[in-house]
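Hello again, I could really use a second opinion on something today. I've been staring at a protein lately and its backbone has me curious. Please have a think about how the structure follows from the sequence. I owe you a coffee for this, so here goes:
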Amino acid sequence: MRKTTYSDGRDTQTENFEPRKARCTKDRELKKQNEKKSFISEVGNTLIYIAIALAIFLLIRHFLFVPVSVDGDSMYPTLHDKDRLILNKIEKPNRFDIIVFPAPSNPEEPILSGKQYIKRVIGLPGDELMVVDETLYVNGEEVKETYLESVKENLVPGEILTDDFTLASVAGVEEVPEDSYFVMGDNRTNSLDSRVFGFIDETTVSGTTDIRIWPLKHFGKLNE
């Protein structure tokens, strides 16, 4: 404050204003401080959103869906080597679904230990299966395997895609055991499957897959 004395002896107090330049400088500093606080707040919020998104992604990947890669040609022509698929971990397999599971133990081929197999479910618990003259029978009823039609069309006369068999001849039982699946590859002449290593315990199934994501030209649902 500034004191002013008039000629009649009166005193008065007048406000001591800051110079205009000083006020502008102070305003700029306050503005910078506010902008800095706002920037820090935005960065913090962004990091929180990223952390939440990452957590959701990891949960989905671990518990629901995960990408898998095809290794080999046992599912040709439905799947090709190096195809990439989305594995669904929550759906229970139905007949003709494609599933992923750990390679069964095979002392004769230890190199397969730890690998994941991709095969098609042919038999469900309680099913009686047989193949006669390239025709699949489930519980005595003929069942068409439409996913094999393109292969059968290209067979030369006398060539066999699927050798005749019954469950008794390949597994020693009349029907698929409880909580188990009988699986085969679509490339029947070049597939190591339940005809060789027996049934798959349902608890070992990693999931089902019906969506291809790579290569992009084949992106979409399988068999469509």
Summary: Residues 20-63 form the longest helix (44 residues). The chain has two domains: 14-63, 65-221.
